[in-house]
Amino acid sequence: MKIDYDFLWHVLQSESKNRILNPLPINFYKEAESLKTETSNNPENTNSNITTMINKIKEIRTHKLLLYIAYKKQIQQPIPIEEQETYEKIVSYIYEHQKLQQSDKSQLNAIQAIPEIYLPSGNKIGPLSKGEKITIKEKNDAEFLINSLICEYI
Predict the structure, then answer these.
(1) Which of 76 and 8 is assigned the larger pLDDT?
(2) What would the pLDDT profile of 40-67 be if each residue is shown by its tens digit?
(3) Partners of residue 107 on adjacent β-strands
(4) Residue 110 and which of 48, 50, 61, 91 are 20 to 30 A apart at CA?
(5) For the residues of the chain, what is the DSSP string, one character each?
(6) What is the rounded CA–CA span in Å between residue 21 and residue 145?
């Protein structure tokens, strides 16, 4: 598919009006850059407009990608190669970061004062003061305290 000025304009309008990632050709950015190169000698401001539209489309779609990642939504349709690479890098970074946190779950910080409570493992904890540091040995107990907003990772 050959991308032209009108197609870019319609993509920009469509992306600006809704919150989902609209389907685009896999080679969209490559074709858009090719159009920009073709119009570089154009005396009208077409090249400048094309550059602006491409940048705005990238900005909007990157924001949408980040929202998809934040809300753990699957991307339903194929996306351009550059966006797929960005998506995979971010997801990979988040996965690695979570893995590092999980390996060091035993060190927690109390974010609120609590009385003595029983943890899922049957162990007791508390009373705790806000800001108190604790060590938890069981992974399920640490997850319970984090998910209940009682503690946070150090």
Answers:
(1) 8
(2) 877 676 778 999 999 999 999 999 999 9
(3) 135
(4) 91
(5) ----HHHHHHHHHHHHH-SSPPP--TTHHHHHHHHHHHTTT-SSTHHHHHHHHHHHHHHHHHHHHHHHHHTTPPP-S---HHHHHHHHHHHHHHHHHHHHHHHTTTEEEESS-B--EE-TTS-EE--B-TT-EEE---HHHHHHHHHTTSEEE-
(6) 36
- Residue 151: CB atoms within 10 Å: 25
| Encoded tokens for 36 | 């920009």
For 148, residues 6+ apart whose C-beta sits below 8 A from its C-beta are: none
Q: What is the pLDDT of residue 103?
A: 57
Closest to 94 (Cα-Cα) out of 69, 68, 62:
69
